[in-house]
Design goal:
This protein is mainly alpha-helical. The protein has helices at 2-5, 25-28, 48-56, 69-96, 105-125, 134-156, 171-181, 184-187; strands spanning 36-38, 44-46. It is globular.
């Protein structure tokens, strides 16, 4: 979204590990979660939905959040689903940090069932997509994250398949992802990880 809005030169991305006890994140945001945006005033905004809508208010391009009506609430629901995909997958990542003997297989399966249900809903929603909006930005981000982490999470979590393909059997999702993922704004990372 930062590439789309043209705000890249006004925002300094800082890589952090929110679970690291030495992270300075908690001094800015007492919840200690990412994303967090610290404003020049010293105030902060926390959570994707709040930060994204704030950023959408700062640029001159077409707004990513519809202003009103049915379209606004459809896009907000779709964006929330993308956030739920990301958040649920993070729960699986955290569970994968435990030794396999101390993992909770029922919990892993419940989380993964939610991931599958969200992917199915996204596949059903794609025919209703119109112009590029915040739901699509958040959707592609969640899918890129999942693709990046799936093999490790699948390998380290009891009962998961590291070769799981989120696009298999979801033709709308696969076609939509392929068309957006080749756009430069979705390929260029904000932070280079060393």
């Amino acid at each position: 979204m930062i590439h789309y809005t043209g705000l890249k030169d006004r925002i300094e991305p800082i890589a952090t590990k929110p679970f690291d006890p030495d992270t300075p994140l908690a001094t800015i945001n007492p919840i200690g979660k990412v994303p967090t945006l610290q404003l020049e005033s010293g105030e902060y905004l926390a959570g994707g939905p709040v930060i994204y809508e704030y950023l959408d208010s700062l640029h001159r391009r077409r707004r990513l959040y519809p202003a009103k009506g049915e379209a606004r609430f459809r896009v907000l629901r779709q964006a929330w689903m993308a956030d739920a995909l990301f958040d649920t997958f993070v729960l699986l990542i955290i569970e994968s940090w435990h030794d396999r003997d101390s993992q909770r297989p029922d919990y892993i399966q419940r989380c993964f069932n939610k991931v599958v249900a969200i992917l199915d809903q996204m596949d059903r929603d794609i025919p209703s997509y119109e112009r590029l909006d915040i739901a699509q930005f958040r959707g592609i981000g969640a899918l890129q994250f999942m693709k990046l982490k799936m093999s490790a999470v699948g390998r380290d979590c009891v009962g998961l398949d590291p070769t799981f393909d989120p696009f298999a059997g979801r033709d709308h999702l696969a076609g939509w992802y392929k068309s957006l993922a080749r756009k430069k704004m979705f390929r260029e990372p904000l932070i280079r990880m060393e």
